Every structure is written in C-alpha cells, then in structure tokens.
Amino acid sequence: GHAESALLEARRVGGNRTVHYEDTAGVTSQLTAALTAGEFAVVYQPIVDAEYGRLTGAEALARWIRPGFGSVPPSEFIPDAERSGFIRVLDRWVLRTACRTAASWPSDVPSKVTVNVSGQELDQPDYYEQVVTALEDAGLPADRLVLEVTESTLDAESAAALEVLRRLRGLGVRIAIDDFGTGYSSLSRLHRLPADILKIDRSFVAELRPTDQEAPVIAAITALARTLGLRTVAEGVEEPYQAALLRRYGCDEIQGWLCGRPGDGDLVGAALAGPHVVAQVLAGNR
Ligand code: C2E
Ligand code: MG
Ligand code: MG
Ligand code: MG
C-alpha cells in the first residue's frame, strides 16, 4: 500500500550513499511510517521587507507532530533523516507541499515561498525535474519559489549540482545561501556560486546589543552582498533594535520572532490578502 511504496522510495533514494548508521532501516521505516501516517507538517515563517515592514513571503519549515511528544523540531529528526537518506523523501514532500500552499496565496500580490534543500537531495540526478514537476503540479510560477541551500552545502557541491541550480535559476527560481557566515566559503568561490539571496545567519543578529551604535559584521556582510549583487535576508530577528540596525545597513528583508513565529500557511495567505504590514519591525526606528 501507500506506506510500503513510500518505504521502498526511501530505500531507493537512500541506497546509493555511504551510510554510517547502525539501524538505518529502523530509523528510515519509523520516519517513513510517520510521514505516511500524516505526522509531518510544514509551517511557514513570515519574511518581511526591512524598510516598510511589508510581508514578502515565508520560509517552509518541517515539523514532526509526534503523538505523545508534540511538535518535534528539525534539530531532533534531521540528523537521523540525513544519516538514513530519509531527508530526500522529506525534502521532496516539503517542496511539493510548500508549492501547493504558495499557489493558494493571492496571485495579484507579490510573494515567495522558500524551501530548504539538503545536499543529498541536490545531488539527485532528477532534482531539476523534481522541482519543475512540483511547480507544474501546484500551478506555481517559478519566480515564486526560493530554494535555500546552506553555505557549507553549497561549498561542498559538485559542478553538476551547481549546474542544476543554474538551470533552475534560468526558469526564474531563486537560490538563497542559508546560514551565511557560518561556513568557510572563499570569496573567489562565493562570487561564482549561482545565488540571488544571502541569508545572514542568526548568530550575527544575536550578537547585536540595544546600545550598539554600529554593527561592523552586518556592515561587512551587507556591503559584500551589494558588491556581489545579492539581496540580503537576516534571520533570527527578535527585537526592534536589531531590525533598526539591519535596516540602517541596507539589509533588504528580515525574518524572526519579531515578524512572526512559524505557523499555518493559510495565515500567510490571509495576511498577504490584507494590508500585511508588520508594525513591530519599524518600532526600533531612531
Ligand atoms: P534554517 O533554515 O536556518 O531556519 C531558521 C530556523 O531559525 C528555524 O528553526 C526557525 O524556527 C528558527 N528561528 C526563526 N526565527 C527565530 C528567532 O527569532 N529566534 C530564534 N532563536 N530562532 C528563530 P527550525 O524550524 O527549528 O529549523 C532548523 C533548521 O532545520 C533550519 O534552519 C533548516 O536548516 C532545517 N530544516 C527545517 N525544515 C527543513 C526541511 O524541510 N528540509 C531540510 N533539508 N532542512 C530543514
Ligand atoms: Mg532555511
Ligand atoms: Mg537559515
Ligand atoms: Mg539558520
């Protein structure tokens, strides 16, 4: 039945990697059973224009709503999912779900949905076709999808995987470098990466203090991004003073608890249909 074919799919995509895990089949079948039982969900965290506080889209984040445990965060299941190869099944499901959700948002208001992609998924020979099919099945225009790949993943990627990203960009899909600043990508490599957006890692935002008159690291990252022609999105923005500092250095968009916790995709659609200004984002103006 359904659970069986999903399990076979998990085994198939998990089959061609070296797996350093004792109980791969056990973990894979547990996670696959949870997915087929409908225990996984996608939540959407708002992303807001830094200058005007307008909602511009949302990041799709996976949750395991495990009976008896509640909502399990990705930090607790992604390591197992990566070791067992299940991450590819999960990434595909999140991609397809997020495309359908974003297709339900108002079509006359600009917006985008951003989806995280693991290195294992990017390495799949059919990844390009997977994305095209997800967009077509959902009826979502390609320019409403952003794929997030972490800096360290991108750094390790083969020429073939980077070529797939280039082809996807040719369709209008945008590529974001996630958790920027935590990897070690050389500047020469960075400027050759097929990317449109740089996501400033939450650790740099967390370092900002209310009394700071300057933010040298933010200044450097936003200047670098401008030079390379990349837009910037700051993650983990919790306080109005952080938003104000980021705005001062020309950061384009912000994401974090200040703008909203991850939630139901319908709420993002409803907000986009309304005036959709997040006033707290502008509260730190000085
Ligand atoms: P990420 O892509 O960097 O996502 C941002 C994470 O920061 C999310 O954690 C989000 O809930 C959290 N966050 C957002 N705003 C704030 C804030 O103001 N303060 C603080 N302290 N945290 C904030 P989450 O949902 O636990 O996801 C963690 C990571 O798991 C993600 O980091 C992403 O790398 C990975 N992940 C999530 N869903 C997927 C997925 O579907 N596929 C893959 N491959 N990875 C995923
Ligand atoms: Mg992300
Ligand atoms: Mg991130
Ligand atoms: Mg992060």
TrEMBL record:
It comes from the Bacteria. Residues 24-276 form the EAL domain. This is Diguanylate cyclase/phosphodiesterase. It comes from Cryptosporangium minutisporangium. The chain holds residues 313 to 598 of 598 of the full protein.
